Amino acid sequence: MTWVNFFGNALDPKVGGIAFFGIFLSLVVFLIGQWLFKITNGFFLCQPLFVGMVLGIFILWLLSKWFGVSLPTFYQAAYKPGGDILFWFLNPATIAFAIPLYRRNDVFKKFWLEIVLSLIVGMVISLVVIYFVAKAAGLNNAMISSMLPQAATTAVAMPISAAVGGNSAVTAMACILNAVLIYALADVLIKVFRLNSDPVGAGLGLGTAGHTVGSAKAVQLGSVQGAMASIAVVVISIVVDIVVPPFASMMHLF
Amino acid sequence: MASNQQSAKTTEAEHEPAPILQQMAIFACVLFVSSLISPLFPASFPVPTPVIGLVLMYVLLASHAIKLYQVEKMADFLISLIAFLFVPSGVQMANSLNVFTDDGALTGVMLIVVIVLATIILLVVIAYTTACFMWISRKVFHKSTDVQ
Predict the structure, then answer these.
(1) Chain B partners of A105 at a C-beta cutoff of 8 Å?
(2) Quick check: B124 and A94 CB within 8 A?
(3) What is the rounded radius of gyration, in angstroms, for the C-alpha atoms of chain A?
(4) Dist. CA B107–CA B113, nearest whole Å
(5) How confident is the model over A132-172, as pLDDT tens digits?
């Protein structure tokens, strides 16, 4: 038995122990990302999650070429069992966001009406604009549907994307790119659009567009922005769940 | 990345954190109840389990049925891991790389362009809408909008 065969057996779902490869690969690529992020002093394309995604796909692609199978087949057989185990932990991690929200309950209680109204109205306006931008860019309906729920956190956005006829993998990628872009562009955008003139608005905007990275960015602007962003990260997921399915069916996307 | 709220002051009195297994049990219980509620919603209006769990957890905390010290440690741990937990959902694209090339070579570029624009749209629109609503509640309802 050559060691290529041995390695092939280790990746064979029937042999067992298969889930370890996915978990191991995820950890390694993420740690490489963290290391790159550190040595490049926070270059925006070196965000650990983004590096993890690109490098993970690249390594899977290399291995699939080596074993002479297609990339989706190899992904399904070798990575998915382990990836699914890690992915499951997004469920408790998502409900854990209730705790930072509760910690800022003083602010949330005082402004809950403004926050909820702003997020719902802002979300509807954004959806209309995103819909027409995507339409103008010539994307097909499945891709447009995938673009709509990206403001929600990944664990919420993916099932909604699938329910409105989108591709949940594309939505997950959009969520990751959102964070990368906000990390890179937030300072410029805030200056150009004078967003910081209303600290509450800047906070909610950053939390919506940049997820947890956006809320880390907002903390640098001030404690009000930070509090609002961490509220927005949580509340927008619920708003997306309420707003996106009716919007998508209104636009006959599925 | 999201652990920035750890330094935020908590209003409740200092308390020893509950044993980690009890904290896990609370999370498991909330998730289990949510997973029972989630299928009750129609397919055209899906409410994923984490959304229900999020609301349920917040309601339990706000109604003081659960104290902060009973879930805090577990929650901070999970939130500190969140970026890593997103890796499998990103790698999932390996399954769908064909969407970049299916409708011609430009689709992939356009898809990225739309994501970039959508990020900017979300940030700017939400910020301006909020500024608008804050202005209304300041000028029309004479509500103080100082946050501190």
Answers:
(1) 11, 62
(2) no
(3) 20
(4) 10
(5) 999 998 888 889 999 999 999 988 999 999 999 899 999 99
Domains in chain B: boundaries: 1-95, 96-148
**CB distance A209–B76 less than 8 Å?**
no
Cα separation of B111 and A133, whole Å? 11
Q: Which of A92, A117, A154 sits opposite B89 (nearest CB)?
A: A154
Q: pLDDT digits over B26-64, tens only?
A: 999 999 999 999 999 887 788 999 999 999 999 999 999
Partners of residue B55 in chain A, C-beta under 8 Å: 98, 238
- Going from the C-alpha of A96 to that of each of B21, B50, B116, B133, the distances in angstroms are 15, 10, 28, 29
* The two three-digit tokens of residue B43, written as one number: 């397919």
Query: Count of residues for chain A?
Result: 254
pLDDT digits (tens, 9 = 90+) for A39-75: 998 888 888 999 999 999 999 999 888 888 888 888 8
Residues of A in contact with B84 (CB under 8 A): 26-27, 30, 48-49, 52, 86
Closest CA–CA distance from residue A103 to any residue of chain B (Å): 6
Does residue A41 come out as left (phi exceeding 0), alpha (psi in the -120 to 50 range) or beta?
Answer: left
Could you give the angle at which helices B20-37 and B49-62 cross, rounded to 10 degrees?
Answer: 120
In chain A, domain spans:
3-88, 94-250
